[in-house]
């Protein structure tokens, strides 16, 4: 799949935009917004690679990721109003992003020789922990805890990918199915405001 | 000491329960509660092992820990009311847990060849940092900063273990004494609402 | 530069003081204050070294750093009023500290073979992330997001160092210039309450 690398860069770019825009209504200056974009874009993959002891970290070993982030932050600076008006487009990008990063994280963990249970967790972490770290830094309840089905969609997609992989489904088809399922769960959850039940 | 491994699993199980229950009265869905249980259970040991560069992390290298956490989270889901009513029992379990994890963290650090000063810090980190990360994520003042003598009891016990170890006390007796001292300090502090003085 | 090592210890000592004093007006006991001092002093360098996979961490490999922190925390305990009255002196120390740690972080990253772009980020991280972690733990908006030009001064100084280094300026002169520029930017920003513009 030759699309993987450009898609990964694109995902990083989009996460940087959404991270920078996330602090728009707060007391953050442009530097703080850039920093937030940076953390959002690299946080999930960085945590995954630290936990798995996989070095160098993606963005440290391949400088293109840093430039993708810089471009995303710049875009957020230059076109904040346009990008904010594109809320729906950005939401779609974010949904695409978490779906893609989940599967990517699962595949990376498997290829490093880790068990499927660990790969599932790492897939979800890759997708959502950047946002969690961002929210923690800016003193908000992390997205994980407040949104309609979000991280759990990633976990479900990760497990699905692993099950289909176990049954030796062809990788491209598996990718397509797993990513589609994550996206579908998320879109349906937001459309119908579905949440998981609370502990009572 | 053949009890070490099952005790470690039991401690992980109990920490997962208390982590999942910690967000019961908040706006967290079951996934958020499970995530919180997971972070509470693995946070301390994970931070210790990242700082000491000891890989694979305990829960990544041995899948039983993940299942102990899953069981703990499930227990919190299925029996939340019973477990909440067992507040005193849970408190005792938590106290046992931090005492045990402190000494375990000290021993691991020493066995990896680190200095006693570092081992003392790592023992305390093993015990309390899971709770600190959990509290930070859910936007509360970490337990470390608000509770009656908590982390300092662990640090005291860690130092005591190291002193007795320096004087070549037999390991089993040392374990028993150090763990008992941590538990005693904590119980007495809570019973009499003892806190350390504040900076003034 | 034989001054580097004692200066690094001094910087660690000063960061520990400022970290411990930072929670003075809050509900923290002396242990919490000490913990905060510790985290402030080691946070930046620790994050840098974890990201770069450089082990052992500075304070784990060289026990003198731990003692510098202990001394700093003790100073904050014994002389809190004097030190608080020395607010201006402390501010100057902090400014010296971030300037020095920035350049030190850049040099360490370069010496480990990382690209200048990564070195710039790591320089800034070394200087400011200890304070960011501290603020996150005590539930405040991190200094990075609220202060007059702070982290951006470090980033600017880091980039300046890298540019002058690229043009083969002698190291001592480069150090002097880069550190002076960071200090100057920070002092001018605070004196005239300069902030970077916000995203609008």
Automatic annotation (TrEMBL), chains A, B, C:
Compartment(s) where it occurs, according to its Swiss-Prot or TrEMBL record: Cell membrane
Annotated membrane topology is: Multi-pass membrane protein
InterPro entries, per database record: Gly_transporter
Q: Which UniProt keywords apply?
A: Cell membrane, Membrane, Transmembrane, Transmembrane helix
Keyword flag Oxidoreductase: no
The UniProt transmembrane annotation reads 6-23, 30-51, 57-78, 118-137, 149-169, 175-194
Instruction: Specify the Glycine transporter domain's residue ranges.
Output: 7-79, 92-164
| Pfam families recorded | Gly_transporter
Which PANTHER family does the entry mention?
INNER MEMBRANE PROTEIN (PTHR30506), UPF0126 INNER MEMBRANE PROTEIN YADS-RELATED (PTHR30506:SF3)
Family the entry assigns: Belongs to the UPF0126 family.
Give the protein's recorded name. Trimeric intracellular cation channel family protein
């Amino acid at each position: 799949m030759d699309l993987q690398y450009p898609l990964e860069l694109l995902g990083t770019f989009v996460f940087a935009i959404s991270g920078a825009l996330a602090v728009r209504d707060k007391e953050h200056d442009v530097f703080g917004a850039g920093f937030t974009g940076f953390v959002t874009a690299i946080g999930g993959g960085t945590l995954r690679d630290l936990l798995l002891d996989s070095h160098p970290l993606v963005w440290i070993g391949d400088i293109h990721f840093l430039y993708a982030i810089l471009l995303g932050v710049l875009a957020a600076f230059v076109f904040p109003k346009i990008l904010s008006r594109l809320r729906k487009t950005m939401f779609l990008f974010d949904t695409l992003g978490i779906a893609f990063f989940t599967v990517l994280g699962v595949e990376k963990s498997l290829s490093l020789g880790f068990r499927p249970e660990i790969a599932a967790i790492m897939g979800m972490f890759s997708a959502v922990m950047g946002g969690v770290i961002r929210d923690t830094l800016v003193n908000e309840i992390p997205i994980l805890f407040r949104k309609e089905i979000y991280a759990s969609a990633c976990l479900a997609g990760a497990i699905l990918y692993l099950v289909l992989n176990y049954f030796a489904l062809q990788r491209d088809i598996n990718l397509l199915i797993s990513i589609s399922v994550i996206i579908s769960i998320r879109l349906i959850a937001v459309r119908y405001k579905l949440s998981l039940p609370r502990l009572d």
